[in-house]
Write a structure and sequence with these properties.
This protein has 28 helices and 23 strands. It has about 1000 residues and is α+β, with helices and mostly antiparallel strands. A five-stranded antiparallel sheet has the order 4-1-7-6-5, with helices on both faces. It has a five-stranded mixed sheet with strand order 13-15-16-18-17, with helices on one face. The protein has a five-stranded parallel sheet with strand order 20-19-21-22-23, sandwiched between helices.
Length: about 1000
């Protein structure tokens, strides 16, 4: 089951594919159908069906049946006046069975007489394939298909031979054209058929396209000529019809003039005159003279009629029910006095024309206008058949001419010269074309109501099929003041009766030649394939011989190689050992170079570490000195007059001390013993303050230029780190411009960070640029400038840590730094920092007065500091604040005071780093202190640096040197208030 299901699914898919392709090719084939038949000169689906069954087997035959049913059902239902759905379905199934049987018969004959999956390289097999798959097998579908359409009523018995021949030719040519094309794409063996795509399929497809194009062109030209001939014939017929209408009008004018000239006309003279008019009976049923009689004159008219026409003459009219009755008593009206011929028109003699509403309207119109007028379609009094008639009436007045006004016309009217026409006889007398098969003619009164508009119709059954495209003709004529429209429509039967032999011949002969071309190309490529097979066989034999020869040569060569290898073995081993020694030497040299580089880096790192330790130690001792200077200066400043010069000098000393404190923080940062101390400051102000120092750093041969944004640009960062960045960047620019140049420092504000800068949050930012006109860097060098130990300077001139430190400081601050450089033009480094509101800078930028320090009364403080001046300063500050101060010059001294002091010690102020014992170790020796005792550590190193070295734990109270007395008192107060 698992093996059969994929096969069944594949067959089902192929059936649907074949059905769809059959339907599409069938619709394309119908475009070449010869009207009005249902057969076409080429039927591509027949070739598809034959090739599909040959390639995929009989399992895809249901697809042929399904596709044929759908195609033929669409044909049958689309045909005008076609059979009902049930009959159409039966016909489609019968034709589909014929297509299925034809494909199976053709495939069976080919498999038996040609072979299965034969590549068709033998000319005899090609002839058998073409003959059996085309003319022989296609008899089946032609016979079954034409029979089905005949049963459906779509093919007349006389058209059976024509449609059968066309069907058979179309299927044959379709097999000869399409089957080779399908085999070229999907035939087996595929290696042979695929090679025929260009040699068989392409020429065959091009020939088919050329033939179809020729057919379409010829068919259009022939159809255009037929359409022009149809219109010319219709024009001639319309001219004849118009001429007859003119003759009828002239005839009535002659009659009216005759009556006017004679005056009191008699029947005898009326008949004699009518006999002198040549051809007046062609389409004219009768001519009459109708007199107008007042109510009192009807008896005179009746007496005159009996005198002229015989005693049987009587006056008659229609009553209210439409019945013809005899007039009794005086009655006004328009009575038929004379009519010629009398035979067949006896009932019209004495008839009152005005008793009928249709005739009355025409009488009144002709009388009042003085013009000849025609009635609508009506029933003649003397008519006993189903034909309709029409009256053409010409007014005659007493003076013999038109009185001019309606009132005078009504008073002077004598009667009407009237022409009586049977519409069918009139049309047949003037037009013979409606008898042509497939042409429908209609004569319509455009001025009548829709119910009475149709005057005459011929070829009604043909008209139901609708007119063929472009075969419609219509003209409008005037008949007694009424517009008559004459139209002709030709349907497919008319076009078929002309038989488009030229285009059919072009199509059939061209497709036959194309199919013969396909057979010829198959034979030609088959011969080429046979030649290729023969060459392949001969080549294989020659290759076998060459292989034997090559084997012998290989044996001899191998023996020679073995002898040669024995002779050169020693030399080869020597060369191999030499290469191994050279490789070992190169590897050893590479290892020595790598080791030398590592040692050099190690020495450089040790050197930097030593310098860093030295800088850190100097900064620590300098912080102690700065603490003494700052505290002492504040003590002196407090005793001076605020407006004195000494006070101003002391203020300058304090500012210098603060600046020195900033430098010590830079030294600690260099020694990695300092963390960032961010605050809000103006970048423009910082750049202005740094200008003098940068000028001294870069030298007089380099000009410095500032381009600062207007206003203040506030950021939150560590100013010392920004200063350090400016110094490093300026130093690098100086080294890049040994012969002088321009160093530009620019600032500007942005609404949001530039694209690609993800380190900054969304919002306004500040850009700080440092540009030079130096030698520049290439892209490879620029990509490494922020890497540690990378430098382009000579050995001993640079460490490679400057820009890496700048990069670390800026990124740690939360900013962004990037560089741009062009060799020979210069370099630009761009620092971007988040901008803050100016209001945030006010509390930090303005010097706030120190808050008043409140002494916690009665508290004792133990001060432990090995530096004499610093210890004295702290003790003095605390003593002046009112605290009881215990002074210890070392940790051991502090322990002794702690043990022997009789009272409580509320706070211990101790240095962290001391010669014999650290501050935290001292507190530990004190046993954690007393319950009421607080501890405040102080040091020239930062708390983070001390914690990194294990000297201080996180969370303890810490005061960083240098500090001011007010800062010390504030911290002490805060700790004591906690307790």
């Amino acid at each position: 089951m698992t093996q059969t299901r994929p096969s069944r699914r594949a067959d089902a898919g192929r059936v649907l594919i074949v059905a769809a392709l059959y339907f599409v090719l069938a619709r394309l084939g119908l475009l070449l159908a010869i009207p009005p038949g249902v057969a076409t000169a080429v039927w591509p689906p027949s070739g598809l069906a034959l090739a599909a069954v040959l390639i995929w087997g009989n399992a895809v035959a249901p697809g042929v049946f399904l596709g044929s049913c759908l195609a033929n059902l669409s044909i049958t239902l689309a045909a005008p006046g076609g059979p009902p759905l049930s009959m159409a379905l039966c016909t489609a199934m019968l034709v589909g069975a014929g297509a299925l049987l034809q494909a199976l018969v053709g495939a069976r004959l080919i498999r038996r007489h040609v072979g299965v999956d034969d590549p068709l390289v033998d000319p005899k097999k090609i002839v058998l394939f073409v003959t059996l798959g085309g003319p022989v097998a296609d008899v089946v579908s032609a016979t079954v298909g034409v029979t089905g359409f005949f049963l459906a009523g779509m093919v007349l018995p006389g058209d059976i031979p024509w449609n059968w021949a066309t069907w058979w030719v179309g299927d044959t040519i379709g097999c000869l054209l399409v089957a080779p094309l399908v085999l070229c794409f999907a035939g087996r063996p595929r290696t042979i058929w695929r090679r025929r795509l260009w040699t068989v399929a392409l020429p065959l497809g091009m020939a088919f396209g050329a033939v179809v194009l020729s057919y379409v062109t010829a068919s259009r030209l022939e159809l255009a000529a037929l359409r022009a001939d149809f219109r010319l014939n219709c024009d001639n017929l319309g001219a004849g019809f118009e001429q007859h209408l003119t003759t009828y009008s002239e005839l009535l004018r002659f009659v009216s003039r005759f009556v006017t000239c004679v005056g009191d006309v008699t029947r005898e003279r009326f008949v004699e005159f009518i006999a002198t008019v040549p051809g007046h009976y062609s389409g004219v049923h009768a001519l009459s003279w109708n007199v107008v009689a007042a109510a009192g004159d009807s008896g005179l008219v009746e007496a005159r009629g009996r005198r002229e026409n015989g005693p049987g003459f009587r006056l008659s009219r229609y009553d209210s029910t439409g019945e013809l009755v005899t007039v009794t008593g005086p009655a006004a009206g328009v009575f038929v006095l004379f009519i010629d011929p009398v035979r067949g028109n006896e009932e019209a003699l004495g008839f009152d024309v005005s008793s009928d509403p249709i005739r009355l309207r025409t009488v009144v119109q002709a009388r009042d206008t003085g013009k000849m007028c025609a009635t609508e379609r009506l029933r003649l009094v003397q008519e006993h058949d189903s034909q309709h008639g029409v009256l053409l009436m010409h007014p005659v007045y007493k003076t013999g001419r038109d009185p001019g006004t309606p009132e005078r016309r009504r008073s002077e009217i004598l009667g009407f010269a009237t022409g009586v026409f049977r519409i069918g006889d009139m049309v047949r007398a003037s037009i013979a074309y409606p008898t042509v098969h497939g042409v429908a003619m209609r004569l319509v009164d455009a001025d009548a109501s829709p119910q009475a508009a149709l005057l005459f119709e011929s070829g009604g059954e043909s008209g139901k099929q609708g007119s063929f495209e472009g075969f419609h003709w219509q003209r409008t004529y005037l008949m007694g003041g009424r517009r008559w429209q004459l139209s002709f429509e030709a349907n497919r039967d008319y076009v078929a009766s002309k038989q488009l032999w030229t285009s059919w011949s072009v199509l059939a002969s061209g497709l036959l030649l194309a199919s013969l071309l396909g057979g010829f190309m198959l034979a030609l490529t088959g011969q080429t394939e046979r030649s290729a097979q023969l060459v392949a066989e001969r080549t294989a034999a020659l290759s076998a011989s060459n292989a034997l020869l090559e084997k012998e040569v290989a044996v001899r060569t191998r023996i020679e190689e073995e002898v040669r290898s024995l002779n050169s073995g020693l030399e080869a081993r020597v060369l191999e050992r030499t290469r191994e020694l050279e490789a070992a030497r190169q590897s050893l040299q590479l290892q020595l170079e790598q080791q030398h580089q590592l040692e050099e880096r190690m020495r450089q790192s040790q050197k930097l570490e030593a310098v860093g330790r030295l800088a850190g130690g100097i900064a620590h001792d300098f912080n102690n000195l700065l603490t003494i200077i700052i505290a002492t200066a504040q003590f002196v400043s407090e005793d001076m007059d605020e407006k004195s010069q000494a006070q101003r000098d002391m203020t300058q000393i304090l500012r210098a001390a603060d600046r020195a404190a900033t430098l010590t923080r830079q030294l600690l940062a260099y020694s990695r013993r300092q963390v960032l101390q961010p605050r809000v400051f103006d970048v423009n102000e910082l750049v202005r303050e740094m200008t003098a120092m940068l000028s001294r750093l870069i030298g007089e041969h380099i000009r410095i230029e500032l381009d600062l944004a207007p206003g203040a640009l506030f950021v939150r960062a560590d100013p010392s780190q920004i200063e350090m960045a400016l110094v490093n960047l300026a130093a690098n620019s100086r080294d890049a411009m040994p012969s002088g140049g321009l160093l530009a420092v620019r600032t500007r504000g942005l609404v949001s960070p530039p694209d690609g800068v993800s380190e900054l949050p969304a919002g306004p930012c500040v850009v700080l640029e440092v540009s030079d006109t130096g030698c520049g860097m290439d892209s490879r060098t620029l990509a490494q400038v922020f890497e540690p130990f990378f430098t382009t300077k000579d050995v001993g001139r640079g460490t490679g840590l400057g820009l890496s430190a700048v990069y670390g400081a800026i990124t740690q601050t939360g900013g962004h730094i990037s560089g741009e450089s062009v060799v020979g033009v210069g370099t630009t480094f761009r620092i971007i920092l988040a901008r803050v509101d100016a209001a945030l800078a006010l509390p930090e930028q303005q010097t706030q007065p120190a808050p008043p320090v409140q002494t916690v009364a009665g508290r004792t403080i133990l001060v432990v500091e090995d530096e004499l001046e610093l210890r004295a300063l702290a003790c003095r500050t605390l003593a002046q604040a009112g605290y009881t101060v215990l002074e210890a010059i070392s940790a051991e001294w502090a322990l002794d005071l702690f043990r022997h002091h009789p009272g409580p010690i509320h706070l211990v102020l101790t240095d962290v780093v001391m010669p014999s014992m650290t501050g935290p170790r001292l507190i530990e020796r004190m046993g954690g202190g007393r319950p009421e005792m607080r501890v405040l550590y102080m040091s020239g190193y930062t708390q983070e640096a001390l914690g990194a070295h294990g000297l201080l734990t996180h969370g303890v109270d810490f005061l960083e040197k240098p500090f001011k007395p007010v800062d010390l008192l504030a911290r002490v107060q805060a700790l004591l208030l906690k307790s």
